[in-house]
């Protein structure tokens, strides 16, 4: 037979699953699905070829019934781990494995499944993680207030966000939301109001199944002509945006109780536009989305124009979603259809006359009125109803402002704080507001929240387990809003069944990032993760729910099964070496090179997880044999890395430049180290090298700086981790340094949200808000008042010795709600309500008390009565603070290797919470004489600051001479900064000096910094 003919005959065989290699085993893990059917997990492995497109493997019983089936993963030829959730009633059935492509059976084989030999585990009750969970949490949390709560709507008026000029783009738009639907308000004075609408369950995938991540719903524009002063206010108490633009008046809200945007408009004539353009659906499974996100702004500052032009040409060839329009009477609507879902917005106008026309923009309505006009827009997806247009229309109806305001009044009554620093206090309330506005949905929101109206967002805007996912719900616990955990519990608890299915080891391994299964998510659930400690972090919010609520039913039905899945994985994966210790290999600290064995991130999370699993098993009186194995791993875990003085990233890496400062996880969130111990002091000493400089290394971001120890990226979640741990250390000076030098200086946006800050991105994306950033910042502020340690609750642990601090309704583990007041460092009032029964020790300046709690009881420990918030005047102008004040009120931070960006576009000498009518003018350039004095300092930090500031002065001969000298500085990061400043100046003379030092390559790392700077600055 000719060779070519033989090869052609064999091609079909090369694409077949090697079914004879299939092996399966029963596991002890069980779930109870939404239909109430108990299922057991059968884990299996089979050899795959490289080409498996469209194939599934089905488990079939003797009667030919498919018990479960899984899509076959694509990729290179390999052994593939998968599993089936089999009805327990079929446990003893005869099984057959079938490989299918559509209805065609490609291969079939009778199989035998090995017994588990381990008693069944408590089942994970998926039927407790459906829509009924929301009602259960709301009912459980309703009585969890102290003194019945307080009406703080008047007090909140001082923290409204006031705009005296409109946000020119979505980046600083004012946010609204009801937890599932969101809106972002911006505009142009006297001309237009722009409202971007969003919903948590709009996730796309391409026609080939490639996950494309989150998107937004659509845009609503009101166009009008008006002259006069502009005044706009985001009321936190009412969750409304009130606008006065000359003669134009409006009040906008997202209804707290249904997915409807409402706006009351007072204008004689205006045009209303509903917009949605088709979305590009990239089809290259491997590189398509990476190309899409780059085209739409990700990594923009490290990409060439030629590459962007190439991507635009590629995008023009891709398929798109289909947008279908309709209009009738007072309403117009669209339906946007992607391969995996569709969604609709229905817009209706009440009052006056409206005439609809279709245009390239979308649907345009010309409105004429003699009085007030009410506009409403309903949102719905096919995840909620087969016909999303009908569902969106059903969201419309009579005005419901009274019910909306009552929902928010009850929400705010659960907790409040009062601080001497009103900007700090304002940031706390903005964080709590944001959480309520994006955290009541069936599908958990991702880290950009509901206020990011771009397609193809950075990092797919997916669920990322090495940092973002758990942090998105951090503030729910101390601020007493556990009812907002519903989307987190529902979404991630249900994911666990899929994680366990594809994990070849026992238990489950959570992937690095992932999407909903129905939006291409299974491609990322592979049973692999380079940051394995993320599995322990993933279950933390569930365990915290028990610690803060004492809910044993949820512990048994959901939390403990998840803890066991995590504990079982690590118990089987840890390796006992000759030193008698258990070691974790092939597991990096998040986004940190050279930390694949025994890092601090994993150490902290393993200690948390094993302690939680042991305690939970004791409470439920189950799995005593496993408990002994878990305690053995805990007691004999590899030692905390370090030199005895500080904590290291891992045993072989001391203090690298970090993307994530998770080396501080020893304190928070894991409580792996106890307060006041020797190890606690090691953590304190570790903070200095971690925060030695703040900067971005662009393409080299995961690698240490050559010849330099320490440093961290000042992104949104990192700043929250650092500030929270400064509060935990009780270091008020360090806490204020991070609060002002990081959070306010870098992350505070004019709209009160907190920015990403990643200078590789386009300016818009770099300034986009992150949910977990505001979450972590809010937790940091709360930690100055209430801290939950393993063995006690610490009150007023990081406050000034002057001023009045008051709070009510803050929550601590184990299960107590607190109210307190301290004046000039002395505690005058302290009251406790017990949510759960048990023992708790409370410690505060000058006192402590051990309390035997009975659920529902209240105890006055200091003083008596009940606190009420003070009176406050409504805010009438934007809040502002001088940049010079921010940068000089604390020890300055080292910015590396150049001036770091602000979360807001800086147009004068101030940072704003709100927007002024006019800005005072551009910031003055640094004084060259003052910079030269800094350049001669004996402190390297001041020389580095001078090297950085020289980039902002005129490049005369004296400046170039100073930078030339500093390029040879004995401290390498000073030299790097000077070289990058030369590239910033960009004159031929400056570039020649930078290139000369790069060519000499005397200072470690300088050549590389010049290469990167030339690339991103196009020099």
Alpha carbon gyration radius: 29 Å
Based on secondary structure, the structural category is alpha+beta
Query: Would you report the number of β strands?
Result: 44
Q: Determine the N-to-C terminus distance.
A: 62 Å
> Any low-confidence stretches, pLDDT <50, length ≥5?
1-14
Widest sheet, order of strands: 10-17-18-19-20-27-24-23-22
Tell me about the biggest sheet? 9 strands, antiparallel
Helix content: 25-40%
Mean pLDDT level: 93
Tally of individual helices? 27
What sort of overall outline do the alpha carbons produce when their principal axes are compared?
globular
How much of the sequence lies in strands comes to 25-35%
Task: Describe the overall structure.
α17 (716-728) packs parallel to α20. Helices cover 30% and strands 25% of the residues. It has a nine-stranded antiparallel sheet. The chain has 1019 residues and is an alpha+beta fold. The relative contact order is 0.09.
Task: Give the SSE map.
Layout: H1 3-14, E1 18-32, E2 38-48, E3 55-61, E4 66-71, E5 78-87, E6 95-101, E7 104-111, E8 113-114, E9 124-125, H2 132-141, H3 153-156, E10 161-163, E11 174-177, E12 181-188, E13 192-199, E14 203-205, E15 211-214, E16 218-223, E17 230-235, E18 240-245, E19 248-254, E20 260-266, E21 269-275, H4 288-295, H5 305-316, E22 322-328, E23 331-337, E24 342-350, E25 353-359, E26 362-368, E27 372-381, H6 388-394, H7 401-412, E28 416-418, H8 422-438, E29 463-464, H9 468-471, H10 486-501, E30 513-514, H11 534-538, H12 540-549, H13 552-573, E31 575-576, E32 582-583, H14 600-620, H15 624-635, H16 678-690, E33 694-695, H17 716-728, H18 732-747, H19 763-766, H20 771-783, E34 786-788, E35 793-795, E36 804-812, E37 816-823, E38 826-834, E39 838-844, E40 847-853, E41 858-862, E42 879-882, H21 883-888, E43 895-896, E44 910-913, H22 928-935, H23 940-949, H24 957-966, H25 972-985, H26 988-1000, H27 1006-1016
Parallel strand pairs: 1-8, 1-9, 33-43, 35-39
Antiparallel strand pairs: 1-2, 2-5, 3-4, 3-6, 6-7, 10-17, 11-12, 12-13, 13-16, 14-15, 16-21, 17-18, 18-19, 19-20, 20-27, 21-26, 22-23, 23-24, 24-27, 25-26, 28-36, 29-30, 31-32, 34-35, 36-37, 37-38, 38-41, 39-40, 42-44
Helix pairs in contact: 4-5, 8-20, 12-13, 13-14, 14-15, 17-18, 17-20, 22-23, 23-25, 24-25, 25-26, 25-27, 26-27
